Amino acid sequence: MTVADASGYTGMNVVSGDAYIVGDIVDMRYDPVTWVLEGLKVRCTKTTSNLIGAGTGKSMILLGPVELIVNDVVLLPENLEDAKPYIRADTDALSSVAYLYGRKVVSSDGMILGTMESVMVDLDSWTIHSFKLKVDKAACQVLGIKKGIFAKTVTGLVTANVSTVTENVNLNITAEQVRGLVAPE
Q1: pLDDT tens per residue across span 22-63
Q2: Residue 128, Cβ neighbours under 10 Å: how many?
Q3: Which of 31, 80, 97, 105 counts the most CB atoms within 10 A of its CB?
Q4: Rounded mean pLDDT, 152-163
């Protein structure tokens, strides 16, 4: 399992096995019930969009799920022609990982714990694994974290702790239960 911040993939080039630059990663799409990644939202290059029939240049496509090789670029295991089965048009009907950033995180007992700092994804299993939370100063004492000059970030919130995502990320556990789960970074 390789867990990484989803924002770290934004802007990365996607390259096919036959060396075509497919495009740049713009976002990730996920199922808000299962937390399974539906695909990488990629701004397609004009050359690639012509080859795969994705419309005009800069069209948005959804790529995956598929086993990827991630280094300085995201490398598809097949050539562009063979990759067509897991390339489809992007749709705004799917939830966006970028929407989660900056959302207030609220415990089941109504306490604002902080804001969503990072979304940790696992591209091996194509799932959203966990979250990093930028802790609100008012929540520091409840979470057992010392206040300081700099903002505190904690890890340890997993997708199983989230009940719904609306304007806020609403947890299904109390602030006291969160205290036992999170670890200061």
Answers
A1: 999 999 999 999 999 999 999 998 888 777 776 666 688 999
A2: 24
A3: 105
A4: 90
Residue that the structure tokens 């713009």 belong to: 26
**Looking at the chain, how many residues does it have?**
185
Could you give the C-alpha distances from 131 to 8, 100, 149, 182, in angstroms and in order? 14, 10, 23, 10
- The full DSSP string for 145-180 is ----SSPPEEEEEEGGGEEEESSEEEESS-HHHHHH
Q: Coil, strand or helix: which one is 39?
A: strand
The pair of three-digit structure tokens given for residue 161, joined into one six-digit string: 């702790």
Taking alpha carbons only, the member of 78, 74, 65 closest to residue 126 is 65
CA 125 to each of CA 1, 39, 46, 116, 162: distance values in angstroms, whole numbers, following the listed order:
8, 12, 30, 22, 19
Alpha helices in 7-101 (DSSP H): 46-52, 80-83
The CA-based angle 103-105-110, given to 5 degrees, is: 130
| pLDDT(172) > 90 | yes
